[in-house]
Design brief:
2 copies of one chain form a homodimer. By secondary structure, chain A is α+β, with helices and mostly antiparallel strands. Chain A has 2 domains: 5-68, Winged helix-like DNA-binding domain superfamily/Winged helix DNA-binding domain (Arc Repressor Mutant, subunit A, Orthogonal Bundle); 83-221, Chorismate lyase-like (Chorismate lyase), CATH 3.40.1410.10. Chain A is 23% helix and 36% strand. Chain A contains 6 helices and 10 strands, in the order αααβββαβββαβαβββ. Chain A has helices at 5-18, 31-38, 42-54, 83-89, 161-168, 185-190; strands at residues 58-61, 65-68, 75-79, 94-105, 121-131, 134-144, 173-182, 198-208, 211-221, 227-232. In chain A, the strands form 2 sheets. In chain A, strands 4-5-6-9-8-7 form a 6-stranded antiparallel β-sheet. Chain A has a two-stranded antiparallel sheet with strand order 1-2. In chain A, strand 8 and strand 9 form a beta hairpin. The longest helix of chain A is centred in the N-terminal third of the chain and has 14 residues, at 5-18. Chain A starts with a helix and ends in a 7-residue tail after the last strand. Chains A and B meet through strand 3, strand 7, strand 8 and strand 10 of A and strand 3, strand 7, strand 8 and strand 10 of B. Chain A binds a DNA duplex through helix 3.
Chain lengths: 239, 239
DNA sequence: CAGTGGTCTAGACCACTGA
DNA sequence: CAGTGGTCTAGACCACTGA
């Protein structure tokens, strides 16, 4: 427990805020006052306060000073591990089966839900994820061949398309939508459920810079999956 | 567009990584080499590289140097706006109706799903969120009276419990689970759906430090709600 | 105008860890 | 052992913005 000084200053101030000794809106001492309090250079105080500002715990305004920020509660970190990894880490066997595969204009077999690969050519894939030989999720995916030419001849037999993509094309941005829906008869039979059974639907589009990489929709049986997210309040409130 | 120097160095290096000019595993120049390249002090280079390390784009190892990090893809930022705010921002009217309210040991009417307020006393609330007088979500919530004594006499008529809590007890940590389920007959009738209709189920527990604040389960009709998350790849990969 | 934070410098000492 | 990043100092100049 021999933290650097700027970390100790940071956690010290953080403690005053989280304990409620300082409440949102309260003014913090100035950097010069902290310098005197901790007997250190201003850069060291600045590093601690800047980190707290980046973390969203503190608002800093020139001339006015630094203030305890009002909590922002509009985002949380959602853990979405790779499906194959997650199944394996539970000690189950994992398998992916490709049901269907086609190549064409991406608009032709568009995945509904508002996501869109644009006008170029794309590979369209339908497949099933299995955990311990029980169907876990039905996947419908398009991969842009403009952005990922290598997808044209990839087999997707040993690893599922999502895992393959991660290793070939790191993405820089993704958008995810999560909803519930009822299974149609075809989906129900593939997932070994009854028609109308509730499904968790996850749709995601990913980009690399301005290039659209892939659009995917995954359907999970209600008992098969849940998402879990753990969030420490201000750590991602930076923007 | 007159960024400070450390920001320009940062975005410059970031550009080399995102464009693919530098790939994961590549060694970056040392701080001294960057000093020469940009003609600045080492602290300025250090600030840029430290920010990239915090963002997860770069791994830094003493003696060895700085390297382009392998992408980590296991978390994304999920926007979960306040329900009342979201309804109002769509231009709809919002209303919350309390159906039931009780006080007792929190264990007695525990919300299933693994979340738990512990042994203390708690207020239990059942209520309905309405958008434009149409039921949007059924909420079942417990609030710890040890952590939030003021909840005992709060009315929850003008604002829903979640909004009330945000303004009284800022939380520091939350865990969320998301799943699909089928509506039982009582839930279906309250949400004006048919029994067995698919629902999106969101369960959340929040803490303030070590204190458990609240456990909530919200059930949304499949058409009524979806979650959306947008994620820029490495920005939250800090941990 | 004057106080505040934002940035930058040119050094310094050190811990760590790979060669 | 030697190179690297981690930290810290004691200054400096400046832009911003509230009084």
């Amino acid at each position: 427990m021999n933290l650097p000084l700027h970390e100790r200053i940071r956690t010290d101030i953080e403690g005053r805020i989280l304990s409620g000794a300082l409440v949102p809106g309260d003014k913090l001492p100035t950097e010069h006052e902290f310098m005197a309090e901790y007997g250190c250079a201003r850069m060291t105080v600045n590093k601690a306060l800047s980190a707290l500002a980046t973390a969203g715990l503190v608002d800093r305004r020139k001339k006015a000073g630094s203030f305890v920020a009002r909590p922002r509660l509009h985002s949380m970190v959602l853990d979405i591990p790779d499906l194959m990894q997650q199944v394996l880490s539970r000690g189950q066997t994992y398998r992916f089966t490709l049901l269907e595969r086609g190549i064409g204009r991406s608009a032709a077999s568009k995945i509904d839900g508002g996501f869109d690969l644009g006008a170029g050519k794309a590979v369209t894939l339908h497949g099933l994820h299995y955990a311990d030989d029980h169907p876990l999720a039905l996947e419908h995916r398009q991969i842009s061949l403009d952005s990922v030419p290598g997808a044209e001849h990839a087999l997707f037999d040993s690893e599922p398309p999502g895992t393959w993509l991660l290793q070939h094309i790191p993405w820089t941005e993704a958008e995810t939508r999560i909803a519930a829906c009822a299974a149609d008869t075809r989906t129900a039979s593939l997932l070994q459920l009854e028609a109308g059974a509730p499904l968790l639907r996850i749709e995601r589009q990913t980009w690399r810079g301005a290039d659209r990489i892939t659009v995917v929709r995954q359907l999970f049986g209600a008992d098969a999956y849940d998402l879990s997210a753990r969030f420490k309040a201000q750590e991602t409130a930076g923007r």
